[in-house]
Amino acid sequence: MGTRERKQKEFSLREALFLEAAEAMVSEEGFLHLQMARLAEACDYATGTLYQHFSSKEDLLLALANRRMEAFVDIFRKVGAWQGGTPRERMFAIAVGDLDFSRHHPEHAKLTQYVHAEAVWENTSPERREQAMCCTGPVGEVVAGIVQEAIDRGDLDAQGLSPLELACGPWSVCEGMRALSHVQGLFESLNIRSPERLFFRQVQVHLNGLNWAPLADPADHAATDALVARVRREVFDVSGPDAREVRS
Amino acid sequence: MGTRERKQKEFSLREALFLEAAEAMVSEEGFLHLQMARLAEACDYATGTLYQHFSSKEDLLLALANRRMEAFVDIFRKVGAWQGGTPRERMFAIAVGDLDFSRHHPEHAKLTQYVHAEAVWENTSPERREQAMCCTGPVGEVVAGIVQEAIDRGDLDAQGLSPLELACGPWSVCEGMRALSHVQGLFESLNIRSPERLFFRQVQVHLNGLNWAPLADPADHAATDALVARVRREVFDVSGPDAREVRS
DNA sequence: TTATGTTTTGAATCAGGTTCAAAATCCGAC
DNA sequence: GTCGGATTTTGAACCTGATTCAAAACATAA
Predict the structure, then answer these.
(1) Nearest to A40 by CA among A61, A65, A22
(2) Using CB atoms within 10 A as the burial measure, which of A11, B15, B167, B230 is most buried?
(3) pLDDT per residue over B200-245, tens digit each?
(4) In which residue ranges does the UniProt entry place its DNA-binding region annotation (chains A, B) (predicted)?
(5) Is A184 on the interface with B (CB under 8 A)?
(6) Could you tell me which residues come within 8 angstroms of residue B16 by beta carbon, excluding any fewer than 6 positions away?
(7) What is the least distance, in Å, from the CA of B10 to any CA of chain A?
(8) Which CATH class is domain B57-247?
(9) Location of each CATH 1.10.10 domain in chain A
(10) Closest C-alpha to A199, from B199, B133, B176
(11) B30 CB near a chain A CB, below 8 Å?
């Protein structure tokens, strides 16, 4: 009988509904103003029903973060599918995608930061944490693939590091710059004119430091800007006007 | 009359008392279990009195973070006072200090991460935020000084970047690795054996990428370990057994 | 010593996440 | 159809813990 299975479907449909509504509320007034009772009411369900899906408010927030994470993973899939660049350019493309994503979804960046704070993390359900973990699967695969290809071509010498260990470098540059840019007013007080250019430049610097051929000239803005534009066009389907919007 | 001034002194003495007690409670059971009423009682004051000093619980947490931040700034002062290394080694020393500090004060790292989450940040008082900002003053000065010295000696070509813009690179590597290491189980799942070595290696990679002379061989563990040990000894007064403890 | 301003107190208030006993609904069996 | 037990939904009550504020205590000045 399909009864059980229909129930299952209805259940996950309802979960999607909750998440949809929650996302709308969050993007409207920030995730710290999200209220469980209000969310339930907005979906015409009782508060308790919400708790059949999410073990706590934190659990719901992590679920939201995971949902968006899937869109984030798409960045990596797109880069993985891109055949138009050298491995180094593909690694750079990930940095571009990362930056653009966090610009398009500023709430997501904050939410991620928030749910990863131990105080919050501890209050989520193990299942949801599991889910969060396995989201990173494809990410690792794509990155490791890029590094491996670079090694195979002779563009890069791993010098005893595994592909993922190697990738931690550029990754931490991305994470770090994001973290710094979230400190309100920091860049202003350091008199940094163009955080975006600085970010891309540091990525190039780091890749150079890894001796990842072909080396780039980090000081050559024009070249970097051109690469960024090309990546946005070829990998992420962002055309002219959009690109400008993203960049601004 | 010294009445007003005596009052002032008593007031800030009491604030120090509150912070002292709060720190003890936090280090004992984590900052998420800190309770305003319990803290007040532990200090033999009423709850309301606490609110004469801190506009909210979040404000108190930020005050705690700021207090520790002063110890953090000491790292930069020590590096600034160190005369035994090249500018590059001094920059590297900052990374060592940063890592060791976050190991010695794991609660502080978490707390900092937490108070910087917008949800929390918004709930602090403007004065306290101001205070948090100006803590970074000496940090910037020391770092900018190191970079400037390297440029003056001809070890480093700024290529149009200001000293602080340049320093953002290594800084973001530090921040980024810290952020990654806080994601529970990430390093394990990536099969990273020695996060510490990887961290120092990436710092070297990045400095190489900046073409900061004298270049280092990032793959040379022995050399990096020796440099780390030397920094811990000469700059931070950490001798043998302690160093081992720190490293473990 | 009294009038007035200031600080402290802690019980009351308030917010909002979480629970759970009762009501409603579903579903297979007769 | 409808009965009875299992499952799901409900939402008011509960609970924790931050915050407030009117009264009390205290300090200062006249």
Answers:
(1) A22
(2) B167
(3) 999 999 999 999 999 999 999 999 999 999 999 999 988 754 444 4
(4) 35-54
(5) yes
(6) none
(7) 33
(8) mainly alpha
(9) 1-53
(10) B176
(11) yes
